[in-house]
Design a protein that fits this description.
Elements (H helix, E strand, L loop, with lengths): L9 H19 L7 H9 L1 H24 L5 H33 L9 H31 L8 H30 L7 H4 L4 H19 L9
Helix pairs in contact: 1-3, 1-4, 3-4, 3-5, 4-5, 5-6, 6-8
Length: 228
């Protein structure tokens, strides 16, 4: 299922360039401080920057894992890939903005920023909408492979990976949708629950991974666990 020795396609090369540009946008938004107070401000932004960087790296890794498993160069995959890259570029600044507000507030570092209830709901809604959109694109990429498994001549193990990959990312979509509902409905003093709900990602994906590996072992007893 893993295609060793294959050259990087133009689609993957283009995607890597866009991911690199998105990470560059994070860096160029930082100004070189010319005072001690400016340096302190940069240091206070280290953790939000690291969180945004880690999220971008996770999205890149999910993209890498998909194209490591499939020769996805059909028109639908190209379209979905372009949608994903658009979302990455569009949401890189909003994501950094959310982290720059939420993390200092949780850690109680730096000046506390006060916002209206409407602005607080908008902030959480924008974050969750971007997350849901990107996870949905990944789910559609895997679903497109599974739907066309015969036309793409996928092996049984590749078809299994496509089906379970779509299910895995739909779990993330479900968590993001719950966050959106909470952001729009809970009292403003409980708006933090819209962010904390993402803590469900860990146990949900752990359990999903266990079930997938059990199903893989039953269906393909001679295969090794699929690397991500």
């Amino acid at each position: 299922m893993i295609r060793n020795g294959r050259e990087v396609s133009r689609l993957e090369g283009f995607s890597d360039a866009v991911f690199g540009f998105a990470l560059t946008l994070l860096v160029v938004s930082l100004e070189v401080p010319d005072t001690i107070e400016g340096l302190k401000q940069i240091l206070r932004g280290f953790i939000p920057f690291a969180a945004t960087f880690a999220l971008m790296c996770w999205i890149w890794f999910e993209h890498y894992a998909f194209f490591r498993k499939f020769d996805a160069e059909d028109p639908m995959s190209i379209l979905l890939n372009c949608v994903l890259l658009f979302l990455v570029l569009f949401f890189v600044y909003p994501l950094k903005f959310v982290f720059a507000l939420v993390i200092p507030a949780i850690m109680r570092i730096g000046p506390q920023i006060h916002m209206s209830a409407q602005d607080g709901r908008l902030m959480m809604w924008v974050y969750s909408a971007g997350f849901v959109a990107m996870m949905l694109v990944f789910a559609l990429l895997y679903w497109n492979q599974y739907r066309n498994r015969a036309a793409f001549a996928l092996s049984a193990e590749q078809a299994f990976a496509a089906r379970t990959g779509a299910r895995t990312h739909l779990l993330s979509v479900a968590v993001g949708l719950v966050s959106i509902v909470l952001a729009l409905t809970v009292p403003i003093q409980w708006i933090w629950t819209a962010g904390m709900i993402y803590g469900l990602q860990g146990p949900l994906h752990w359990r999903n991974g266990v079930l997938i590996e059990r199903a893989r072992a039953r269906a393909f007893p001679s295969s090794t666990p699929a690397p991500r």
